[in-house]
């Protein structure tokens, strides 16, 4: 995969998708979809069930190879490969929680930060001094992320023992520990209660400014999407039927028709689609470090 060589921004990566098409056998999952995520922007991808949101997300992550179209990162051609994305500053969260079950919470977040370490696997294996320093730094950074998300008390716990909302916070802490320049959020509000979603919304809106990353967000929770996104792309049957600011999208008749006309699981704009649940701890306790601090 070619490394992005174009102009970079302190507010995050620029992602451009052009005419992306995906076919699964006889089924067209995406048909000529274009999308731009500018540095500093939070861009949402919405649409009824089966519209192609996850497929588009998987194309960006390299899990699905498009049958047509191109991707660019900061103006350079991108052919995503999942295992190399973090090295390019592109980090994703998974639907659900997606933590490594055999590692503690702290180790999970350290694993997220590993791509920021200077030493390689063999230095660590040989216990060279630099590897020791790296591990100390990773541990401190991971603890700082856990504290930031209010879940440091779970550092020694295994993921299988965590309440769902805590697991989601840990997953976000792990993603941010990797210092992403482009963060791909796959249904981050899924299964969260109202208070957690409120705090998640606050976090997402601060990410470009405070963590120096742009954000692509796939989400069913319309209130969250409308609140945090700078721009929104709407998919329906694999095609992009609308794109614009939240107000433009909300007022677009094609969008209303796509949702209200969908036979299964219509999602009226503004409707709460996730069950409420109590939040035990605040999602974020303090401001994220600036891009400069994070890089120091
Ligand atoms: N691996 C696959 N093989 C065959 N068809 C697939 C595959 N993945 C997705 N599809 C189909 O592609 C279309 C788009 O699916 P996709 O999961 O991207 O939609 P979505 O908008 O994410 O839906 P949801 O909101 O329900 O998650 C659907 O018709 C789906 O059945």
TrEMBL record:
The annotated regions of Low complexity compositional bias extend over 280-296
* Entry keyword Acetylation: no
Query: Which Pfam families does the UniProt entry name for this protein?
Result: ABC_tran, BCA_ABC_TP_C
Q: Which UniProt keywords apply?
A: ATP-binding, Nucleotide-binding, Transport
Note the superkingdom of the native organism: Bacteria
Please give the GO cellular component terms listed in this UniProt entry.
plasma membrane
- What does the entry give for GO biological process? D-alanine transmembrane transport; L-alanine transport; L-isoleucine import across plasma membrane; L-valine import across plasma membrane
The GO molecular function terms of this record are: ATP binding; ATP hydrolysis activity; L-isoleucine transmembrane transporter activity; L-phenylalanine transmembrane transporter activity; L-valine transmembrane transporter activity
What are the ABC transporter domain coordinates in residue numbering?
A: 15-262
Annotated region Disordered: where?
Answer: 266-296
Q: Which PANTHER family match?
A: AMINO ACID ABC TRANSPORTER ATP-BINDING PROTEIN, CONSERVED COMPONENT OF ABC TRANSPORTER FOR NATURAL AMINO ACIDS-RELATED
Protein name per UniProt:
ABC transporter ATP-binding protein
Organism encoding this protein: Catellatospora bangladeshensis
């Amino acid at each position: 995969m070619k490394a992005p060589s174009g102009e970079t921004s302190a507010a995050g990566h620029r992602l451009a998708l052009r005419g992306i098409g995906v076919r699964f056998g006889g089924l067209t999952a995406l048909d000529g979809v274009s999308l731009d995520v500018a540095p500093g922007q939070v861009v949402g991808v919405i649409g009824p069930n089966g519209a192609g949101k996850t497929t588009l997300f998987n194309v960006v992550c390299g899990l699905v190879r498009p049958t047509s179209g191109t991707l660019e990162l900061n103006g350079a051609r991108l052919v995503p490969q999942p295992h190399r994305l973090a090295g390019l500053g592109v980090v994703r969260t998974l639907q659900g929680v997606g933590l490594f079950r055999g590692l503690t919470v702290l180790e999970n977040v350290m694993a997220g930060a590993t791509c920021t370490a200077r030493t390689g696997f063999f230095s660590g294996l040989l216990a060279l001094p630099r590897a020791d320093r790296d591990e100390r730094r990773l541990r401190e950074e991971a603890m700082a992320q856990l504290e930031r998300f209010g879940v440091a008390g779970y550092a020694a716990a295994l993921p299988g023992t965590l309440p769902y909302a805590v697991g989601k916070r840990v997953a976000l802490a792990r993603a941010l520990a990797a210092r992403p320049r482009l963060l791909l959020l796959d249904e981050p509000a899924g299964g969260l209660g109202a208070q957690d979603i409120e705090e998640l919304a606050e976090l997402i809106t601060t990410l470009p400014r405070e963590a120096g990353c742009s954000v692509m967000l796939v989400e069913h929770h319309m209130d969250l999407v409308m609140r945090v996104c700078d721009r929104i792309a709407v998919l329906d049957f694999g095609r992009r039927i609308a794109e614009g600011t939240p107000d433009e999208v909300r007022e677009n008749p094609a969008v209303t028709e796509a949702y209200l006309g969908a036979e299964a699981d219509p999602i009226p704009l503004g409707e709460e689609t996730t069950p409420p649940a109590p939040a035990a701890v605040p999602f974020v306790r303090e401001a994220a470090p600036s891009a400069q601090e994070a890089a120091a």
